[in-house]
Amino acid sequence: MGSRSSLLICVLVFGVVSALFTGHPESAWPLAQIDDYLLNILIMAGINVILAVSLNIVSGHTGQFSLGHAGFMAVGAYGSAAVTQIGGKAILNALSFLGGAAPTCVFVLSLFVGGSLAAVAGLAVGLPSLRLKGDYLAIVTLGFGEIIRVVIQNTEAVGGARGLTGIPSFTTLGWTWGLAAFCIYCVSALVRSTYGRGFLAVRDDEIAAEAMGVNTTKYKVTAFVVGSFFAGLAGALYAHLIGYITPEGFSFLKSVDVVVMVILGGMGSTLGVTVAACLLTFLNELLRQAEQYRMVAFALLLIVLMILRPQGLLGGIDRWIQARRNRS
Amino acid sequence: MKPILELEKVLVRFGGLVAVSAVDFHVGEGELVGLIGPNGAGKTTLFNVITGVYTPTEGAIRFDGQAVDGLPASEITSKGIARTFQNIRLFSSLSVLDNVVAAFNLHLKSGFLGALWRGRQFREQEREVRDEALQLLDVFGLKSAAHQPCRSLAYGDQRRLEIVRALATKPRLLLLDEPAAGMNPTEKVELMRLIRFTQERFGPAVLLVEHDMKVVMGICQRIAVLEYGRKIAEGTPSEIQQDRRVIAAYLGEEVVDA
Fold first, then answer.
1. pLDDT tens-digit readout, B183-212
2. CATH code for the part of the protein at B1-80+173-258
3. How far apart are CA A125 and CA A56, in angstroms?
4. Lower Cβ count inside 10 Å, N or C end of chain B?
């Protein structure tokens, strides 16, 4: 079975399972009646999976350490909220000929706008800053994330520091995990190809990659744009889940959260990063009683991991699977 | 013989230091040329200028009649110049096979969208690339190690893999940067055989930078000698062996009796 068909099956399974759990109050499915708290956690897990897997193509596969992922998420969240909340009524009226499907169409449009705006932001940051390497790139991306946050904070049109309220809650479990599956598919499909070996070559040795005809700048910018597009989608889903976004929600600490997921799961392992994103979402909820010790717990977890398994929880598992496949 | 690579009055300056000074030099199609010189003579700098790591301060570099100086390294490779590295630079986390596959990047017909859609053209290309890479590995006796991580190869095999990887870009000029560094005499003999074999089988011109006289004298048709960034001699191995300036550069001047 080719990787394409196996991944499509994954997407289908995700789609069906998610449809069962739409969480819509009017839903006819009995399984839809799970409690709201659990439902929210499951959706948050999906959003975190998108964030972590999309950062993984930048940091894990292409080796460009980025600390600005929350910035791209913010662009997506505000961009999509602009469509549904600010332009909502007008767009809804324009689409009224679609009848009952109109709200869904508006949501799809807003997701697309959020993702695309974030991708453009990724391109704008990527082109000038990807001449930098390692720590320097981390600092520039960190700076970029903060710039976005401060700009939003000072833009009255999107609520400034008060944030943006009244965003319709369109996000469902189905949408979230459907898009998460799409994100996982895209990243794995890209990396698992002759074309995608270029990303890994850039990570392993930039000079050698360039000498072997790999256009390293193009690959780095591509990784950045793909990564930010999905970060933007995650932001859009988040905005339409919570219904209320503030600039503080997309601070540097949010970026660090995502970086922790990637490191915990294993740089470059899509499976590992997915597992880690789910794990950390649930851990986050378990530690809600001890909110102020949360970061301490995460730090300890990372220290222990670095000592016992520096490659991450499931780092190297993709290679192991590949090796097994080759042997058979 | 038609020259494939021509250097005209190439000069490279790093601040106050002139690393390569007014070097004229050429490599003919299918030729095997050696570039030697004492430590710090500017051999590697010249190498890096040709492959686009540095831009020459003055002068011109032409490949197949086209100016290539100042182009980014990946574009120079796409014109048909491939290289190996003095200190081995394999893609360390990839398997032996994937190292070669990555070097097929230039010749891909199906890129970003193809990888996402995974249509028929993409699948055919993946199969072709894989078969071609395995074939290359087979020719160089590395096929049995194809799925091993490249780090697990022996030193000599890693050098060999670097050559295979460079050949995967389908070069017309292959630049080897000190391929004999750190090899024992047996491995050196094997390396000479390997370079000759590569030329016979794949036909690229080869420019060899090397310290080891035995290797250079043993296989090169023509040798150029650099000292302090200048070309001090050029000729066949036997001519170079007799050249007074070359002997002086390597062994020092004879003391004239008073």
1. 889 889 988 999 999 999 999 999 999 888
2. 3.40.50.300
3. 17
4. C
Pairing of strands B32-36, B205-209: parallel
Chain A residues within an 8 Å CB radius of B123:
2
Residues of A in contact with B114 (CB under 8 A): 193, 195
Contacts 24+ apart (CB under 8 A), B66-72: B69/B10, B72/A210, B72/A215
Is it the case that residue B244 has pLDDT exceeding 70? Answer: yes
What gap in Å lies between CA A214 and CA B14, rounded to an integer? 27
Mutation for testing the B interface, residue in A193, A215, A221, A317 having most B CBs under 10 Å: A193
- For A100-137, the pLDDT digits (tens) are 778 888 899 999 999 999 999 999 988 887 788 888 99
As a whole-number percent, the residues of chain B with pLDDT over 70 amount to: 98
Average pLDDT over residues A40-63: 95
CB contact under 8 A, A195 and B105: yes
Distance CA A167, CA A106 (A): 12
Is the pLDDT assigned to residue B258 strictly greater than 60?
no
B106 close to A (CB below 8 A): yes
Among the listed residues A128, A155, A160, the one whose alpha carbon sits nearest the alpha carbon of residue A141 = A128
The proportion of chain A whose per-residue pLDDT surpasses 90, expressed as a percent, equals 58
Position A2 scores a pLDDT of 47
- Residue A317 in tokens: 């598992």
Query: In chain A, which residue's Cα lies nearest the Cα of B148?
Result: A323
A326 Cβ under 8 Å from any chain B Cβ:
yes
β-bridge partners, B223: B34, B235
ipTM (interface predicted TM): 0.91
3-state helix/strand/coil string of A61-93: HCCCCCCCHHHHHHHHHHHHHHHHHHCHHHHHH
Which of B71, B84, B98, B175 to mutate to probe the A interface, most A CBs <10 Å? Answer: B98
Give per-residue pLDDT as tens, A270-292: 999 999 999 999 988 888 888 88
The C-alpha atoms of residue B74 and residue B252 are separated, in whole angstroms, by 40
Cα–Cα distance between B201 and B198 in angstroms, integer? 5
Kindly identify which residue of chain B lies nearest to residue A208, measuring between CA atoms.
Answer: B89
Q: What are phi and psi of A34, to 5 degrees?
A: -85, 160
Query: Which of B84, B109, B112, B128 to probe the A interface (max A CBs under 10 A)?
Result: B112
